[in-house]
Amino acid sequence: xxxxxxxxxxxxxxxxxxxxxxxxxxxxxxxxxxxxxxxxxxxxxxxxxxxxxxxxxxxxxxxxxxxxxxxxxxxxxxxxxxxxxxxxxxxxxxxxxxxxxxxxxxxxxxxxxxxxxxxxxxxxxxxxxxxxxxxxxxxxxxxxxxxxxxxxxxxxxxxxxxxxxxxxxxxxxxxxxxxxxxxxxxxxxxxxxxxxxxxxxxxxxxxxxxxxxxxxxxxxxxxxxxxxxxxxxxxxxxxxxxxxxxxxxxxxxxxxxxxxxxxxxxxxxxxxxxxxxxxxxxxxxxxxxxxxxxxxxxxxxxxxxxxxxxxxxxxxx
Length: 317
Fold this sequence. Notes:
Rossmann fold, 11 helices, 7 strands
């Protein structure tokens, strides 16, 4: 069960190249507002999404471009969304923090810390009532576990035995605040145990470890046994957002985590297994780079959002 590691590596490389290109576009003032990159955290969305079916659902956080790609959204339409173009998934209205595609089971990213957790919980309740057999994955950061919505959602999911898996991308910092300054528990998974659900902490920079943990939790949810919690220990290479200079982190800490880069981990393992030659790696990098450049060209050829369409598709005005 689950995608092959070589396929996972391809998706992680696609996410990395997409995010690096977004970074450049922002510096060049071709993307406006702000943006939150997931460079360094690619193994979490790729590994977890490798454990689910296309009909299953996911919800994300403000750092959700990688999750969108892992769930199957096209990089060209996603790039168009970030550039505020009409061919984006939300006609350019969502931007970098509020992208959704119901056709892909992608319930959206969310600019509110912890805002996607109750959405995923509600979707899981709907799936249970409809007897659809769907499982919902909820992605959020360590900072979200200090929000009331986190605790309320986990309690409700446990009481009602909802088919949802809560995946915490613990990158150690809520914006610039170190986790030990806000959280007394050694592992965030301990918080889920208080709600009577299985919980485990895994290496979030190892795509296979994430996939295997997600497979266990998804199987449990699909069998009607209720929610689970998976804490994925990972690290964002860049700042919280584009305005963050990371002055609260040491160079030594960053270098130690860069050595555990999830892409390098998979490349080394596949090379040692004889499944990734230097030539195959070079071809993969070339293919991915071409895809992202084509995505930028598609986005920039798309017309900008028509102001007359600004209120289309919204629930309230």
